[in-house]
Amino acid sequence: MDDTIARENTALMPYLVAASQILGVAALAVTGAWLSQYRGGFSWDGPEQFNVHPLCMVLGMVFLCGDALLVFRVFRHETKRATKILHGSLHILALIVSLVGIIAVFQFHKKKSIPDMYSLHSWLGITTFTLYILQVGAACYLKGMFHYSFSLGLIQMPVFGPQKTF
User: Fold this and answer.
1) Domain 13-149 is in which class?
2) Is the pLDDT score of 150 beyond 50?
3) Each residue of 35-64: pLDDT tens digit?
4) CA torsion, points 22, 28, 30, 31, in degrees to nearest 10?
5) Which of 22, 54, 60, 165 is positioned for an S-S bond with 98, CB 3.0–4.6 A?
6) Whole-angstrom Cα distance, residue 28 to residue 59?
7) Alpha-carbon distance 95 to 155, whole Å?
8) Which is nearest to 14 in space by CA: 76, 74, 79, 68?
C-alpha cells in the first residue's frame, strides 16, 4: 500500500477520536443529569436504586466498550503488549460496571416484587450481556491470559494458538 494513502486515511483520526470522546462524555452527562434531576437521583437502598442501572449501562456498555475498541487505533505507536493490557482492562472494567447495573435492577425488582424478565428490553439486555461475558471469557482463555494467572502450578491451562499474535 502506498504510504500517502495510509497517511490520508489517518489524518482525520485525532478529530474523530476527540468527537467520539466528546459524544461519550455528553451521553454520560445527559444520562446522569436526567436521572438526578428528573428521576430523583441515585441510591442503592431506596427507590432510586433503579436509576443506577441506566447510568452503569451507558458507562459500561457504551463508553468503556467504545474506548476499548479504540485503543488499538489511538495507541498504534505503543507496544502491542501495552495496548493489549489497556484493551483488556477497559473490557474488564466495562464488564464490572455493567454487572453493577444489572445487579441494581434485579435487586430493585426483587424489593418491589416485579418480575425480572418481563420485557423484550430485559431479554435482549441479558442476552447481550451474556454474549459479552462469553466473548471476554473466550478471549481470555484463547489468548492464554488465564495461563499466567494460574502459573503457580495449581492449574495449568492449555494455551491455544501462537503466543505471538497481532
Assistant:
1) mainly alpha
2) no
3) 999 888 888 888 888 899 999 999 999 999
4) 160
5) 60
6) 7
7) 25
8) 74
Q: What pLDDT sits at residue 163?
A: 53
Q: Which long-range contacts link 74-80 to residues 24+ away (Cβ below 8 Å)?
A: 74/13, 74/17, 80/166
Tell me the one-letter amino acid at 34.
W
**CA proximity to 166, closest of 78, 95, 90, 94:** 78
Tens digits of residue pLDDT in 11-21: 788 898 999 99
pLDDT confidence tier of residue 151, bands split at 50, 70 and 90: very low
Residue 28 grid coordinates: 454520560
Q: What is the DSSP string of 62-118?
A: IIIHHHHHHHHHHTTTS-HHHHHHHHHHHHHHHHHHHHHHHHHHHHHHHHHT--SS-
Give CA–CA dist 126/119, Å, rounded: 11
User: 59-63, 69-73, 107-111, 160-164: which range is least confident on average?
Assistant: 160-164
